Amino acid sequence: MRQVEQSPIGIWSGELDDETCDRIIVEGQLLEQEKATVYGDNLVDTTIRDNVVGWFPRDSWVDRLLFYYAHTTNELNNWNFNINDREQTQFTTYGEGDFYSWHRDCSIKSDTYRKLSITVQLSDTNDYSGGEFRLKDCWGNTDIDITERGSKRGTILVFPSFLLHKVDPIRSGIRYSLVQWYSGPPFT
Asked: Which residue pairs, CB below 8 angstroms and at least 24 apart, start in 109-112?
């Protein structure tokens, strides 16, 4: 836990170039889109989350791209989480009024124990207003300031799945992002 307190997030600012972001958006828009669910229960609750998602196939080039960042951040930040699986990569579209309120990506109700979460900023911040990604510290008390480095197009954020985070409502435009989760055995 001490390592997470000291280094709660890995920020790969602007890591993906415009061409790669554009390619992911084009391919993501071709995926079957569905209303986003909450709590891993296939429950649509638009008071908690309102947006649409599609799913890249497992072992797609997008899935393989994110693998490096999850494992490298886990090692560089000395989290040393035992990771042995990953879920499909989610392509997320936030339109005007869409949001995702404060939540954690792990749940004691789940058979899978998510340990690392990744989010990728695919849109240029000039293409929308609102939609800020926010993250709290280990204790859920203090916002971690990621505004400057974390909002640039092509930025990859890696953080422990138990940290509270949210996406503020979109005021105008469209925000595209990727999300993926890495799991492993329960912490002991």
From this structure: 109/39, 109/40, 109/41, 110/40, 112/85, 112/87, 112/181, 112/183
Per-residue pLDDT reduced to its tens digit, 90-130: 999 999 999 999 999 987 777 779 999 999 999 999 999 99
* 123 Cβ neighbours under 8 A, 6+ residues apart: 21, 25, 153, 173, 174, 175, 176, 177
Determine contact, residues 27/92, Cβ cutoff 8 Å. Answer: no
End-to-end CA, the chain: 12
What is the side-by-side strand order in the sheet with 165-167? 49-50, 99-103, 165-167, 133-135
What are residue 165's phi and psi, to 5 degrees?
Answer: -155, 165
Q: What is the pTM of this model?
A: 0.94
Across 102-141, b (16+ Cβ under 10 Å) vs e yields: eeebbbeeeeebbbbbbbbbbbbeeebebbbbbbbebeee
